[in-house]
Protein 1
Amino acid sequence: MQSFPPVSAPDATILILGSMPGVASLQAGQYYAHPRNGFWPIMGELAGAGRELPYAERLTRLQAAGVALWDVLQSCVREGSLDTAIDDRYSVANNFETFFRYHPAIKRVFFNGVKAEQCFRRQVLGQQAIPDGLEYVRLPSTSPAHAGMTLARKQEAWRQILPEA
């Protein structure tokens, strides 16, 4: 499996990282395409980038809010869509060294779930030259597989990415 390129503007201040797009996203060629994923409803509330908008407009609104979107992994071996099925032996991280060089205003990195944070800490930190002083925050996964938390509770946790929203 191959990830997507980042969605970002040069002046982004926030980076949201998933682990790797799921099957529905890969088939659609869009981040968070599964209809039950909570990402776009949450972004609708926080940045006016809800699922009711065309995909390109959602991305434009995220960029206007200073949000960059990417995945930790460039490629991996995984059966299905679950993060727990990612075989870490065959996963390759994206090039964050170059990404941060072109996005020097990013100060906060938010992980969409546990696996994204684990992969970043294992395969990026200490392996690539990453700027000092970044703030790292793990948020609850927006995946429908993370059903132990309601969308309302996820939205409340995610509110910290854009506290003025």
Note: The radius of gyration is 15 Å.
Protein 2
Amino acid sequence: MRNKYLLFLLFLPFFLGCGSSHNPKIEVTFHLKKVENIVSSNQMAIWIEDKDGKYIETFFVCDYLSYGGFNIDGICPAWVKKAHWENATEDLVDAVTQATPDIGDVKLEFDAPANKFSAGEYTYFIEIHNTENYNEIYSGKLTINPDGSSSESIASVKYEPKKFPEGSGLLSNVKVRYFISEE
């Protein structure tokens, strides 16, 4: 009897569905290029808004930008205006701040909990500072399907205030994907 009881306890988590969890994720991939003839700052922020343009969350921000660079005019101004980073808590700043990505292929993955991201359409943004007051904003629509199935989006780019004359197009192959991770 005791062995049956121990066997039951061993397999109970699997019967209850605790053997695997489903974690909604948002994955951002791109290639960060080295632009000749300039020293690009590559300061970057990634955030998401709802279908009405309401800011929801910052997923990623570079160290320098996060810890004070946001106060410098011309560095990722669209994100600065939306995020109101001057009011961010220390915990939030620490949670989303990372080193500036290296030149080459970049893959970033973020949690997208269902209590924050219900089914629907969202707009994501990746703003990257080139030099002086030149920035590039990559954006697109991402759908979170009611059935939890994956979706993918390819970003388009807008140059603010305009395309930098000596080099631009810091990112290429910008893709954003929603999926359920089985971790």
Note: The radius of gyration is 20 Å.
Protein 3
Amino acid sequence: MKKSKAVRLLARLGIYCLGLWILAFGIALSVNCNLGVSPVSSLPYVVSQISKVSLGTCTTVVYSIYILLQMVLNGRKFQPALVLQLVFSTIFGYFVDGAKALLGDFVLPTYFGQLAMLAASIVLIGFSLVLYIDVELAPMPAEGLVGCIAGKLGKPFSTVKTLFDCTSVLVGAVLCFVFFGKLVGIREGTVITALLAGRVMGMLRKYLSPVIRKVCFGE
């Protein structure tokens, strides 16, 4: 029985990390297609452009701020899940830099080629969300903060998530105009991803969740 639990825990960790790796490639594709990064990556991307520090490092820094905000909102109530969020955020930062290095400056020619890359990015993001959410280890910091705020306000997660994404994009846009005088990394692709990533996740979840539940929890 103990061995079975250990194997299932390793399976959950493996699937979680696979989800983060696929998400990193989805983000790298969204950056390379030049149509706008995903909403959750908009703020780290803008900070990266301002600071000239790698996207992976800036993602880890921004996510660390999200974790600190959760600690503030939770008061003295310590949650071990926050430590896991920090660990996985650091790993994810390396994944993002690794995916970006592997893709290099690859981009398909023409606007339709860029749209194809954006579509692939959305599918990868939706797929990755199913993997790392359904294993029920720890949410990524952005989602953890959304859940924390939703709990404090008594509002639905989906409602707060939409507001959070819009706020992230807005803050990123303001920073763009302050430092560059124009939008950088925030375009139509950002909006398209915001509208479609959740839908893609929902469609894929119907087929993937039963498999994940069986492998990870024996259901």
Note: The helical segments are 2-32, 39-51, 55-74, 80-103, 110-134, 141-153, 157-179, 188-217.
